[in-house]
Design a protein that fits this description.
Elements (H helix, E strand, L loop, with lengths): L5 H19 L4 H7 L4 H29 L1 H21 L3 H29 L4 H27 L5 H20 L14 H5 L3 H23 L1 H4 L3 H30 L1 H21 L4 H29 L4 H30 L3 H20 L10 H16 L1
Helix pairs in contact: 1-5, 1-6, 1-7, 2-3, 3-4, 3-5, 3-14, 4-5, 4-7, 5-6, 5-14, 6-11, 6-13, 9-13, 9-14, 9-15, 11-12, 11-13, 12-13, 12-15, 14-15
Organism: Mycobacterium yunnanensis
Keywords: Membrane, Transmembrane, Transmembrane helix
Pfam families: MFS_1 (PF07690)
């Protein structure tokens, strides 16, 4: 699995840096609120604008990539992130930061969906092995992001934004020189293709499950720094532990559980366990050591879920992987966009316990959706050659 072409490693490195951007701002949410006299719900819009634009923009990633090629799409995405992050660091108002985070989300959309499809199509070995490699990059980026954000944020809340911009410049150079020129797709993707892909009930069910799961995930990520009420460096260390747990289970634990118990069963049980943990966080919100411990433990469940649900998306429907990734990402980032803002409003209005209860309910509902969808996902654990033959047969049948 680890003996891959340089193109795969180039995209994987850039993915690490891209995913650092998700957690890099987490330790500075409260310092931004304190310095700019903003409420938690206002500051949480940094996540909402980022995720909302990213989700909608996922619909155009295939259109762009199929016309100009994956490499150019990746490079444009990186340039947009460099600009968005740098301009956010120069802003003096929360609304300005929120706006530039939206631009950052556009760049991330162009990059992330294209990166996943590029790694899966270019990597040696099975789809499952390629996704583990992608999730390893995700886990490493998410783990290192809060730590770097905490260190830079302890100097200035602007530091993490400039840090992302600088790291993305490095990723741009690496991608430009190490990733060979990639050809355009044989067939140009239309704006409607990702929406048509959701006609496949398996893919739609997984997408809705991911939307509800991400509601809980980003409630934890965006709201927990406020009840923890610690320094940027301390928050960074806590979420660094969370990221390490996520990286470990996504690469080591998830494949073993999948092989032994099956994909859907592991996903359902994992979602139920994560929902229970969010309920515990609702109970112990006022006890900082217990809340911090729950954050780290949550990484174990999130790592398993991220790996298996990404693989499920790639196999759920016999369609192009880039289209499947765009359709799924469009839905899941919808939950990620709403959760941070709503968690802030609920916390301000009803108390810090309530967002975690709502997050727990959303994740449990996601587990229920997956149970109802499982009949359309029976093929997930079949041999990949059999899946390829089935997809080819369906394609031939639709053409005739």
């Amino acid at each position: 699995m680890w003996r891959q072409p340089k193109a795969v490693w180039a995209v994987a490195f850039a993915s690490v840096v891209a995913f650092m951007g998700i957690g890099l701002v987490d330790p500075i949410l409260k310092p931004i609120a304190d310095n700019l006299n903003a409420t938690p719900s206002q500051v949480s819009l940094l996540f909402t604008s980022y995720m909302a634009v990213m989700g909608v923009a996922m619909l155009i990633t295939g259109v762009v990539s199929s016309r100009i090629g994956p490499k150019r799409t990746l490079l444009i995405g990186l340039l947009v992130i460099i600009a968005g992050a740098g301009l956010a660091g120069l802003s003096d108002t929360v609304s300005g930061i929120v706006g530039w985070r939206a631009l950052w989300g556009l760049g991330n959309a162009l990059f992330i969906a294209t990166a996943l499809a590029t790694i899966v199509n270019s990597a040696r070995g099975s789809v499952a092995q390629a996704i583990i490699l992608y999730e390893a990059a995700l886990g490493l980026g998410i783990a290192v992001g809060p730590l770097v954000g905490g260190v830079l944020g302890s100097i200035s809340w602007r530091g993490p934004f400039f840090g992302v911009s600088a790291l993305m410049a490095v990723a741009f150079v690496v991608t430009a020189f190490l990733l060979p020129a990639t050809p355009r797709a044989k067939r140009a993707t239309s704006l409607a293709d990702p929406l048509r892909a959701l006609r496949h009930r398996g893919l739609l069910g997984v997408g809705i499950t991911a939307l509800l799961y991400n509601f809980g995930f980003f409630t934890l990520l965006a709201f927990t720094p406020f009840p923890l009420d610690m320094t940027a460096h301390e928050i960074g260390l806590i979420f660094f532990g969370w990221g390490l747990a996520l990286a470990f289970t996504s690469v080591v634990v998830a494949p073993r559980l999948q092989h032994r118990f099956g994909t859907v069963r592991v996903l359902v049980l994992n979602l139920v366990a994560f929902s229970a943990l969010l309920a515990v966080m609702a109970v112990v919100t006022d006890a900082k050591p217990a809340l911090a411990t729950c954050v780290v433990v949550a990484g174990l469940f999130i790592g398993v879920n991220n790996t298996l649900i990404t693989e499920t998306v790639m196999k759920a429907a016999p369609i192009e992987r880039g289209v499947a990734s765009a359709a799924y990402s469009f839905l899941r980032f919808g939950g990620a966009a709403v959760a941070p803002w709503l968690a802030g409003v609920l916390g301000e209005t009803f108390g810090a316990h309530v967002p975690f209860w709502v997050g727990a309910a959303a994740v449990m509902l996601g587990a229920g959706v997956l149970v109802l969808t499982r009949g359309h996902l029976r093929h997930l654990d079949d041999d990949e050659e059999e899946l390829a033959d089935e997809a080819a047969a369906i394609t031939v049948g639709s053409d005739s």
